[in-house]
Amino acid sequence: MPSPALLLAFALTSLALVAVPGPSVLFVVGRSLALGRRAGLLTVLGNALGFVPLVAAVALGVGAVVAESVVLLGALRLAGAAYLVLLGVQAVRHRRDGGTGPDAGAAASAPRAGARIVREGFLVGVTNPKTVVFLVAVLPQFVDHGAGSVTAQLVVLGLVFAAAALLGDSLWALAAGGARDWLGATPRRLAGLRAGGGVMMVGLGVATATSGHRA
User: pLDDT, tens digit, for every residue of 32-45?
Assistant: First the structure.
């Protein structure tokens, strides 16, 4: 285990980082506007779960190989970007589905659809190359080489970051979902919010695809 001082320092660093809006926040906000508060929170859960295999890869040394490979990192980036565009296009196409209340749209309430939303969030999270680069660059700086297994410490630190992201992104999902409930009082306005959320995801996907391999 990392020392308590290092663990606290990393937890505070993680909270500070997730408080700054980034691609993950834009994705969550777009989903919350398109599908509602519950779907936004499920997306956050899936996105955080997507960190788990990335943390494992970094702890086992695979993450460093990916981060140093232009080809692998580029393939991961393009896969994630394409998936974001697909989700955005779907949101725009289905902008008029469902009703007008807080639970509008079967996609945000049915158990099967809920599992799908978590899975979609997971796929976006696990294909985020910026997360790989961040974990490879930052986690080793908080490892105490005299405190036992480095691999175990990297796993613990990675899970702390995932928990911080889960907390921070959930607040954004709640805020965006609340704004959607308030603004989407009519079917036309709700359709506009859904379309806006979809356009946001498409834009994020395009930006991701054209950003190169810079962290």
Answer: 887 888 888 999 99
pLDDT of residue 19: 73
Terminal-to-terminal C-alpha distance of the chain: 28
CA distance 34 to 12: 31
3-class state of residue 146 by DSSP: coil
DSSP class per residue in 21-49: --HHHHHHHHHHHHH-HHHHHHHHHHHHH
- Sequence-distant (6+) residues with CB within 8 A of 35 are 91, 105, 107, 108, 117, 194, 197
Q: Tokens at residue 203, please?
A: 């834009």
- CB 158, CB 7: distance < 8 Å: no
On whether the CB atoms of residues 105 and 98 are closer than 8 A, the answer is yes
19 φ/ψ angles, rounded to the nearest 5 degrees:
-70, -20
Provide the token pair at 104: 């509008």
Count Cα neighbours of 124 within 13 Å in the Cβ-side half-sphere: 33
Q: Which two tokens stand for residue 43?
A: 């997306």
